[in-house]
Design brief:
By secondary structure, the chain is of the alpha+beta class. About 20% of the residues lie in helices and about 35% in strands.
Length: about 290
Protein backbone atom coordinates (compact mmCIF):
# COMPACT_ATOMS: atom_id res chain seq x y z
CA UNK A 1 0.00 0.00 0.00
CA UNK A 2 1.51 3.32 -1.10
CA UNK A 3 0.93 6.32 1.13
CA UNK A 4 0.78 9.73 -0.50
CA UNK A 5 -1.91 11.50 1.55
CA UNK A 6 -2.45 11.01 5.28
CA UNK A 7 -5.48 12.23 7.20
CA UNK A 8 -5.34 13.09 10.88
CA UNK A 9 -8.18 12.88 13.40
CA UNK A 10 -7.44 14.42 16.81
CA UNK A 11 -8.83 14.31 20.32
CA UNK A 12 -9.53 18.03 20.95
CA UNK A 13 -10.05 17.47 24.69
CA UNK A 14 -6.29 16.92 25.05
CA UNK A 15 -5.69 20.57 24.18
CA UNK A 16 -2.07 21.66 23.79
CA UNK A 17 -0.77 18.12 24.15
CA UNK A 18 -2.51 16.88 21.01
CA UNK A 19 -1.87 20.18 19.18
CA UNK A 20 1.90 19.93 19.73
CA UNK A 21 1.94 16.23 18.79
CA UNK A 22 -0.10 16.91 15.64
CA UNK A 23 2.16 19.76 14.50
CA UNK A 24 5.28 17.66 15.03
CA UNK A 25 3.74 14.71 13.19
CA UNK A 26 2.57 16.93 10.31
CA UNK A 27 6.08 18.40 9.92
CA UNK A 28 7.64 14.93 9.97
CA UNK A 29 5.27 13.54 7.34
CA UNK A 30 5.61 16.56 5.04
CA UNK A 31 9.40 16.27 5.19
CA UNK A 32 8.93 12.68 4.02
CA UNK A 33 7.01 13.99 0.99
CA UNK A 34 3.49 13.16 2.17
CA UNK A 35 0.48 15.44 2.05
CA UNK A 36 -1.35 15.84 5.38
CA UNK A 37 -5.04 16.72 5.77
CA UNK A 38 -6.88 17.41 9.02
CA UNK A 39 -10.55 17.11 9.83
CA UNK A 40 -12.11 20.58 9.59
CA UNK A 41 -13.34 20.57 13.19
CA UNK A 42 -9.84 19.75 14.49
CA UNK A 43 -7.65 21.78 12.10
CA UNK A 44 -7.85 25.07 14.09
CA UNK A 45 -5.97 23.35 16.93
CA UNK A 46 -2.85 23.41 14.75
CA UNK A 47 -3.63 26.62 12.88
CA UNK A 48 -4.63 24.90 9.63
CA UNK A 49 -7.67 24.69 7.37
CA UNK A 50 -9.33 21.30 7.32
CA UNK A 51 -11.66 19.22 5.18
CA UNK A 52 -14.96 17.46 5.83
CA UNK A 53 -15.31 13.78 6.75
CA UNK A 54 -16.37 12.68 3.27
CA UNK A 55 -13.46 14.45 1.58
CA UNK A 56 -11.02 13.10 4.16
CA UNK A 57 -12.27 9.60 3.41
CA UNK A 58 -12.16 10.06 -0.36
CA UNK A 59 -8.71 11.64 -0.63
CA UNK A 60 -6.59 9.98 2.06
CA UNK A 61 -4.72 6.70 1.75
CA UNK A 62 -4.85 6.17 5.51
CA UNK A 63 -5.95 7.92 8.70
CA UNK A 64 -3.86 8.57 11.81
CA UNK A 65 -5.99 8.83 14.97
CA UNK A 66 -4.14 10.89 17.62
CA UNK A 67 -5.44 10.60 21.16
CA UNK A 68 -6.52 7.24 22.46
CA UNK A 69 -9.07 4.49 21.95
CA UNK A 70 -11.96 6.99 21.95
CA UNK A 71 -10.36 8.88 19.06
CA UNK A 72 -9.93 5.66 17.11
CA UNK A 73 -13.56 4.70 17.78
CA UNK A 74 -14.77 8.05 16.44
CA UNK A 75 -12.57 7.56 13.37
CA UNK A 76 -14.46 4.35 12.59
CA UNK A 77 -17.50 6.45 11.63
CA UNK A 78 -15.38 8.18 8.96
CA UNK A 79 -13.57 5.21 7.44
CA UNK A 80 -16.15 2.39 7.71
CA UNK A 81 -17.69 2.81 4.24
CA UNK A 82 -14.31 2.68 2.48
CA UNK A 83 -12.02 0.44 4.60
CA UNK A 84 -9.22 3.04 4.68
CA UNK A 85 -6.48 1.76 7.03
CA UNK A 86 -6.23 3.43 10.44
CA UNK A 87 -3.20 3.89 12.71
CA UNK A 88 -4.03 4.47 16.36
CA UNK A 89 -1.54 6.74 18.16
CA UNK A 90 -1.94 6.80 21.93
CA UNK A 91 -1.14 10.04 23.76
CA UNK A 92 -2.13 8.77 27.20
CA UNK A 93 -4.55 6.42 28.95
CA UNK A 94 -5.09 2.70 28.37
CA UNK A 95 -4.75 2.68 24.59
CA UNK A 96 -5.96 -0.89 24.14
CA UNK A 97 -6.60 -0.45 20.41
CA UNK A 98 -3.82 2.03 19.63
CA UNK A 99 -0.65 0.72 18.00
CA UNK A 100 2.00 3.33 18.84
CA UNK A 101 2.69 5.41 21.94
CA UNK A 102 4.87 8.53 22.22
CA UNK A 103 8.10 6.56 22.76
CA UNK A 104 7.83 4.26 19.74
CA UNK A 105 5.97 6.67 17.43
CA UNK A 106 8.71 7.79 15.07
CA UNK A 107 10.61 4.47 14.87
CA UNK A 108 7.24 2.87 14.11
CA UNK A 109 6.47 5.45 11.43
CA UNK A 110 9.83 4.78 9.76
CA UNK A 111 8.81 1.15 9.41
CA UNK A 112 5.35 2.02 8.14
CA UNK A 113 6.66 4.41 5.49
CA UNK A 114 9.13 1.72 4.41
CA UNK A 115 6.22 -0.68 3.92
CA UNK A 116 7.15 -2.81 6.94
CA UNK A 117 3.71 -3.26 8.47
CA UNK A 118 0.64 -5.44 8.26
CA UNK A 119 -3.09 -4.78 8.14
CA UNK A 120 -5.23 -6.40 10.82
CA UNK A 121 -8.94 -6.68 9.99
CA UNK A 122 -11.57 -6.20 12.68
CA UNK A 123 -15.25 -7.08 12.48
CA UNK A 124 -17.74 -4.19 12.64
CA UNK A 125 -21.40 -4.19 13.62
CA UNK A 126 -24.29 -2.26 12.13
CA UNK A 127 -27.15 -1.09 14.32
CA UNK A 128 -30.53 0.12 13.14
CA UNK A 129 -33.30 1.67 15.25
CA UNK A 130 -36.78 0.75 14.00
CA UNK A 131 -39.81 2.73 15.16
CA UNK A 132 -43.30 1.89 13.89
CA UNK A 133 -41.64 -0.43 11.31
CA UNK A 134 -39.53 2.41 9.92
CA UNK A 135 -35.76 2.78 10.24
CA UNK A 136 -35.08 6.08 12.04
CA UNK A 137 -31.32 5.72 12.64
CA UNK A 138 -28.45 3.55 11.39
CA UNK A 139 -25.00 3.34 13.02
CA UNK A 140 -21.71 1.42 12.77
CA UNK A 141 -19.57 0.32 15.71
CA UNK A 142 -16.21 -1.33 16.37
CA UNK A 143 -16.73 -2.16 20.06
CA UNK A 144 -20.40 -2.38 20.93
CA UNK A 145 -23.99 -1.29 20.66
CA UNK A 146 -25.53 -0.96 24.14
CA UNK A 147 -29.24 -0.79 24.84
CA UNK A 148 -29.46 0.39 28.42
CA UNK A 149 -31.05 2.65 30.97
CA UNK A 150 -29.72 6.00 32.13
CA UNK A 151 -28.34 6.78 35.57
CA UNK A 152 -31.67 7.87 37.08
CA UNK A 153 -34.15 5.63 35.24
CA UNK A 154 -35.68 2.38 36.45
CA UNK A 155 -34.67 -1.06 35.11
CA UNK A 156 -36.03 -1.80 31.63
CA UNK A 157 -37.62 -4.95 30.23
CA UNK A 158 -36.00 -6.31 27.09
CA UNK A 159 -36.55 -9.21 24.74
CA UNK A 160 -33.57 -10.33 22.66
CA UNK A 161 -34.16 -12.33 19.49
CA UNK A 162 -31.48 -14.10 17.46
CA UNK A 163 -32.37 -14.90 13.85
CA UNK A 164 -36.04 -14.62 14.77
CA UNK A 165 -35.86 -16.86 17.85
CA UNK A 166 -36.36 -15.51 21.36
CA UNK A 167 -33.02 -15.93 23.17
CA UNK A 168 -33.48 -13.74 26.29
CA UNK A 169 -36.24 -11.87 28.06
CA UNK A 170 -35.46 -10.09 31.29
CA UNK A 171 -35.65 -7.03 33.51
CA UNK A 172 -32.31 -5.34 34.03
CA UNK A 173 -30.10 -2.40 33.18
CA UNK A 174 -29.69 -3.38 29.53
CA UNK A 175 -27.67 -5.48 27.13
CA UNK A 176 -24.31 -5.12 25.37
CA UNK A 177 -24.01 -6.44 21.83
CA UNK A 178 -20.30 -6.48 21.10
CA UNK A 179 -17.71 -7.53 18.56
CA UNK A 180 -14.67 -9.63 19.54
CA UNK A 181 -12.76 -6.31 19.69
CA UNK A 182 -15.36 -4.95 22.13
CA UNK A 183 -15.25 -8.08 24.28
CA UNK A 184 -12.38 -6.52 26.26
CA UNK A 185 -14.27 -3.23 26.78
CA UNK A 186 -17.66 -2.68 28.49
CA UNK A 187 -18.67 -6.30 27.94
CA UNK A 188 -15.59 -7.46 29.85
CA UNK A 189 -16.48 -5.21 32.79
CA UNK A 190 -20.03 -6.60 32.79
CA UNK A 191 -18.82 -10.20 33.07
CA UNK A 192 -18.74 -11.15 29.39
CA UNK A 193 -16.16 -13.50 27.84
CA UNK A 194 -12.90 -12.39 26.23
CA UNK A 195 -12.93 -13.31 22.52
CA UNK A 196 -9.88 -13.23 20.24
CA UNK A 197 -10.24 -10.51 17.59
CA UNK A 198 -9.74 -13.03 14.76
CA UNK A 199 -12.87 -14.94 15.77
CA UNK A 200 -15.98 -14.12 13.72
CA UNK A 201 -18.52 -13.73 16.51
CA UNK A 202 -21.08 -11.49 18.17
CA UNK A 203 -21.20 -11.39 21.97
CA UNK A 204 -24.38 -10.76 23.99
CA UNK A 205 -23.76 -9.60 27.57
CA UNK A 206 -26.76 -8.72 29.77
CA UNK A 207 -26.21 -5.84 32.21
CA UNK A 208 -27.38 -6.66 35.76
CA UNK A 209 -30.23 -8.98 34.70
CA UNK A 210 -32.78 -9.71 37.43
CA UNK A 211 -32.51 -13.42 36.72
CA UNK A 212 -29.74 -15.91 37.45
CA UNK A 213 -30.52 -17.82 34.23
CA UNK A 214 -29.81 -14.93 31.87
CA UNK A 215 -26.14 -15.33 30.95
CA UNK A 216 -23.76 -14.03 28.24
CA UNK A 217 -23.87 -15.72 24.83
CA UNK A 218 -21.43 -15.99 21.93
CA UNK A 219 -23.08 -16.08 18.50
CA UNK A 220 -21.98 -16.70 14.95
CA UNK A 221 -21.09 -13.40 13.25
CA UNK A 222 -23.75 -14.07 10.62
CA UNK A 223 -26.51 -13.82 13.24
CA UNK A 224 -29.05 -10.99 13.30
CA UNK A 225 -29.82 -9.72 16.79
CA UNK A 226 -33.04 -7.84 17.52
CA UNK A 227 -33.50 -6.07 20.87
CA UNK A 228 -37.10 -5.10 21.71
CA UNK A 229 -37.79 -2.47 24.36
CA UNK A 230 -40.97 -3.65 26.06
CA UNK A 231 -41.37 -1.04 28.79
CA UNK A 232 -42.07 2.69 28.69
CA UNK A 233 -39.20 3.56 31.08
CA UNK A 234 -37.73 6.98 30.36
CA UNK A 235 -34.01 7.32 29.80
CA UNK A 236 -33.31 4.16 27.80
CA UNK A 237 -30.78 4.74 25.01
CA UNK A 238 -28.83 3.00 22.29
CA UNK A 239 -25.18 3.93 22.89
CA UNK A 240 -22.70 3.32 20.07
CA UNK A 241 -19.05 2.73 21.03
CA UNK A 242 -19.55 5.14 23.92
CA UNK A 243 -19.52 7.95 21.34
CA UNK A 244 -23.18 8.51 20.39
CA UNK A 245 -26.41 8.11 22.35
CA UNK A 246 -29.83 7.65 20.72
CA UNK A 247 -32.98 7.91 22.90
CA UNK A 248 -35.37 4.97 22.65
CA UNK A 249 -39.07 4.70 23.45
CA UNK A 250 -41.33 1.75 24.25
CA UNK A 251 -41.91 -0.41 21.19
CA UNK A 252 -38.61 0.49 19.53
CA UNK A 253 -36.55 -2.31 18.02
CA UNK A 254 -32.78 -2.25 17.64
CA UNK A 255 -31.57 -4.58 14.90
CA UNK A 256 -27.86 -5.42 14.97
CA UNK A 257 -25.89 -7.46 12.46
CA UNK A 258 -22.48 -7.68 10.84
CA UNK A 259 -21.44 -4.64 8.82
CA UNK A 260 -20.48 -5.64 5.26
CA UNK A 261 -17.01 -4.07 5.54
CA UNK A 262 -14.22 -4.47 8.09
CA UNK A 263 -11.91 -2.05 9.84
CA UNK A 264 -8.25 -2.26 8.79
CA UNK A 265 -5.79 -1.43 11.57
CA UNK A 266 -2.13 -0.71 10.77
CA UNK A 267 0.13 -2.93 12.89
CA UNK A 268 3.92 -2.86 13.26
CA UNK A 269 4.52 -4.43 16.68
CA UNK A 270 4.99 -8.20 16.83
CA UNK A 271 2.77 -8.74 19.84
CA UNK A 272 0.21 -11.48 20.27
CA UNK A 273 -3.31 -10.76 21.52
CA UNK A 274 -2.39 -12.40 24.83
CA UNK A 275 0.64 -10.14 25.27
CA UNK A 276 -1.61 -7.11 24.76
CA UNK A 277 -4.09 -8.51 27.30
CA UNK A 278 -1.33 -9.01 29.85
CA UNK A 279 0.09 -5.53 29.32
CA UNK A 280 -3.13 -3.51 29.16
CA UNK A 281 -5.12 -5.41 31.80
CA UNK A 282 -2.05 -5.79 34.07
CA UNK A 283 -2.34 -9.58 34.29
CA UNK A 284 0.63 -10.58 36.43
CA UNK A 285 2.41 -13.93 36.29
CA UNK A 286 1.90 -14.54 32.54
CA UNK A 287 4.81 -15.11 30.15
CA UNK A 288 5.20 -13.99 26.54
CA UNK A 289 5.42 -17.56 25.25
CA UNK A 290 5.63 -20.90 27.00
CA UNK A 291 7.07 -23.86 25.10
CA UNK A 292 5.63 -27.36 25.45
CA UNK A 293 8.81 -28.38 27.29
CA UNK A 294 8.19 -26.02 30.21
Amino acid sequence: MEMKTVGMVLNPTLGDRVAVAARELQTYLERKGLKVLLLDEHAPLVGENGVGKELLRDICDCIFALGGDGTLLSTVQIVAPSEIPVLGINLGGLGFLSELGPEELYPGLERILAGDFRLEQRLLLRGKVERSDKAVKEVVCLNDCVVGRGALSRPCRLEVRVDGYSAMRFNGDGIIVSTPTGSTAYSFSAGGPVVEPVVAAIVLTPICPHSFMVRPMVLNASATVKVLLETSVAGVNLTVDGQESIPLIAGDKVVIDRYPRQLKLIRVAERSFFCVLREKLRLEGLKDFVSDKE
